[in-house]
Design a protein that fits this description.
The chain is of the alpha+beta class and 137 residues long. It has 1 helix and 10 strands, in the order αββββββββββ. Strands 1-2-9-4-7 form a 5-stranded antiparallel sheet, with no helix packed on it. It comes from Bradyrhizobium diazoefficiens (strain JCM 10833 / BCRC 13528 / IAM 13628 / NBRC 14792 / USDA 110).
Amino acid sequence: MSHRLLPAVRILASTAVLAANLFTLPVAAQPAGVTRTDLQRHDLSAPGREAVQVRVDLAPGVAFGRHTHPGEEIIYVLSGAIEYAIEGKPPVTLKAGDVLFIPSGTVHAAKNVGTETASELATYIVAKDKPLLTLAK
């Protein structure tokens, strides 16, 4: 291989490894029994904001721990029964067809309290330059 091409190949290989790590980090951080399927992501007319839709499936008894989002989350429960614990409020259990609004930066958690897989459609209106999800302490 040419001495001139070797630095370029190294840079491309490093970039590929970094990209692979960035794409797999959110999956690795998910608890077992949680499946997040990205459905769509689009820029909004509000500068620096984007809309993201994700389907979240929770196996029976599985919980997704306390976390926040850098914008609003609008939830539509597709199936099952999910208990949402929103900081400062009593827990609420929603079933298929129910909706929930979670304000920006609010700490919350979700748990499948039913006997079948529970699913939600989560729509986020968030800042583009921040992680979609941050685990709370």
